[in-house]
Specification:
Elements (H helix, E strand, L loop, with lengths): L6 E5 L3 E4 L4 H14 L2 E4 L10 H14 L7 E7 L6 H9 L4 E4 L19 H10 L2 E4 L13 H16 L5 E3 L5 H9 L4 E5 L1 H5 L3 H4 L16 H11 L6 E3 L8 H4 L14 H11 L6 H13 L7 E10 L4 E3 L2 E3 L7 E6 L2
Parallel strand pairs: 2-3, 3-4, 4-5, 5-6, 6-7, 7-8, 8-9
Antiparallel strand pairs: 1-10, 10-13, 11-12
The structure holds (4S)-2,6-dioxohexahydropyrimidine-4-carboxylic acid and zinc ion (ZN).
Zinc ion (ZN) binds next to loops.
């Protein structure tokens, strides 16, 4: 007999790492996140990227205008850090209500061409962020072509994270979407200025998922899924009770024609069923009692924000995720689209 509760009530959670895109594509995916979460950290990797406070403020207005009637969802804005982000931009970003800057090593992932080529070039700007209390969100992979794709996160810790922490000790840093036991151990043993987000796919799947029965593009994201030992370490970190780990879906919609292509864009679309997927992962290790802190408490605490006041309810019942949903003029396939899920968020 199952010992799982029939319903799970949580303080309304937030998504601390989300890709919303823009225009009609954003209009299609935003309602899914607004239904599940009170707030979300919105990634700035548009084309062109959001590099200024003014662009972030305008993007925020477009998101608010696209929200469903009556929604009180709040987008939390980020700027895309470049080699040339002016020190003065940090004050403007703060005044415009932005909460963080995102570090993409140049060429690491989708729309990262304008990213940072050498973190030392950004040190004056990082010092300003440290002073103003803006966070640095890190895509933690080196881009050195000599380094195997599966090792890029672990090497990033040695080459970038450790020097960065030493040189900028009071900058709050989120190691985003961690995928390895090395990163989980690094964050767990770091001081209170370092935290990490975890995606549902990295808690539920190892790299076999990409290859099972043929190449499965909807399981391809960056950093790429790793071996089972890493998945287990991430799940242990997420359910450990440590306040350093919190929810960040990295839901990253790409039209199915782009995913099912000779060159497949990186990203898993999970916004439609994010909480359900996390519940499945936590339940798999008997840790549903740890889900609320991970989803709703640890993120706001690290960002210095208050918790949301509302609540959401997950019920243990089967339902089938749509195979495909509209994405502007195109179609979008959710991770696990067409398959059954065992938890469902109540309306
Ligand atoms: O899989 C990913 N997709 N990883 C990223 O870092 C970027 C994201 C996207 O924007 O599609
Ligand atoms: Zn991302």
């Amino acid at each position: 007999m199952s010992t799982a509760p029939l319903e799970l009530s949580l303080t309304r959670p937030d998504d601390w790492h989300l890709h919303l895109r823009d225009g009609a594509a954003m209009q299609s995916v935003l309602p899914y996140t607004a239904r599940q979460f009170g707030r979300a950290i919105v990634m700035p990797n548009l084309r062109p990227p959001i590099t200024t406070a003014a662009q972030a403020a305008a993007y925020r207005e477009r998101i608010l205008a696209a929200l469903p009637e009556g929604s009180d969802f709040q987008p939390l804005m980020t700027l895309y850090l470049t080699d040339n982000t002016p020190v003065d931009e940090i004050k403007r970003a703060k005044e415009a209500g932005a909460v963080a800057l995102k570090l993409y090593p140049a060429g690491a992932t989708t729309n990262s061409d304008a990213g940072v080529t050498d973190i030392r070039k950004t040190y004056k700007t990082l010092e300003a962020m440290q002073r103003e209390g803006l966070l640095l969100l890190v895509h933690g992979e080196v881009t050195d072509p000599e380094i195997d794709v599966f090792d890029r996160e672990a090497v990033f810790i040695d080459r970038v994270m450790q020097p960065l922490r030493r040189d900028m000790p009071e900058l709050k840093v989120v190691f985003e979407h961690i995928t390895t036991q090395e990163a989980a151990a690094y964050v767990a043993s770091a001081d209170a200025y370092t935290a990490a987000t975890l995606t549902p796919q990295h808690l539920l799947y190892n790299r076999n998922a990409i290859f099972m029965g043929g190449l499965r593009p909807h399981y391809y994201c960056l950093p790429v899924l790793k071996r089972e030992q890493h998945r287990l370490a991430l799940l242990a970190a997420a359910t450990s009770g440590s306040t350093k780990f919190f929810l960040g879906t990295d839901s990253a919609p790409h039209a199915s024609v782009m995913k099912e292509n000779s060159v497949c864009g990186a990203g898993c679309f999970t916004a439609l069923s994010a909480l359900e997927l996390y519940a499945e992962a936590f339940e798999s290790v008997g840790a549903l009692d740890k889900l609320e802190a991970f989803a709703s408490f640890n993120g706001p605490a690290f960002y210095g924000l208050t918790r949301n006041s509302g609540r959401v309810t997950l019920r243990k019942q089967d339902w089938t995720l749509p195979e495909s949903v509209a994405f502007g003029d195109a179609q979008l396939k959710p991770l696990r689209g067409g398959e059954a899920l065992g938890w469902q968020l109540l309306p």
